[in-house]
Known about the structure:
Blueprint: E1 2-5, E2 9-12, E3 18-20, E4 33-38, E5 46-50, E6 57-61, E7 72-74, H1 76-81, E8 90-97, E9 106-116, E10 121-124, E11 136-137, H2 139-153, H3 156-163, E12 168-170, E13 181-183
Parallel strand pairs: 7-13
Antiparallel strand pairs: 1-2, 3-4, 4-5, 4-12, 5-6, 6-8, 8-9, 9-10, 9-11
Amino acid sequence: MIIETGRFGQLELTEEEMIQIPQGIMGFPELTRFCLVDPADDTLILWLQSLDNPNVVFPVLEPKVFRTDYAVRLSAAELRELKLENVNQAAVLSILTIPSDVTQMTANLKAPLVINLKQQVARQVVLQENEYSVKHLMFKELKAHLVTMAAQSRSAAERDDAASRMSVPVSVRSLPASASVRALNA
């Protein structure tokens, strides 16, 4: 399937790259079909692209990158709704807000997106924990993580190769499972 996007131009998608979000994203309940796009920019930020509206796209990031103690506790009903037989089959992404001053970038830790990697179905879950904010400042932590990654593994040839890459859809099943998902009764 070929889709036209406002941010990435034309993208060619396979079934493995599509995500169903039956209830939509908060504020966008009518948008239920999405894909993840890797912009090939070495920031770790992916983009949740709506397949229903080419101009709707959300920056997302695994919250463990900037908050190592982050945990998502799902109720039995949420586990059923996500068709999760095992919490180790889930990925967690936080929706980001990136203002013109990127140092003020925030992540919504209160309402993460939980994806069943096997079924390719997701839900934005509102966590009951009061410790999480909808506007968690996280630029410094992300920058420190990126600097550490760069120091550990990037040669000049790898950077040149990355610079020549294009934005591509991400296979949902290739995403790593998140270690932050727990059942409420666990």
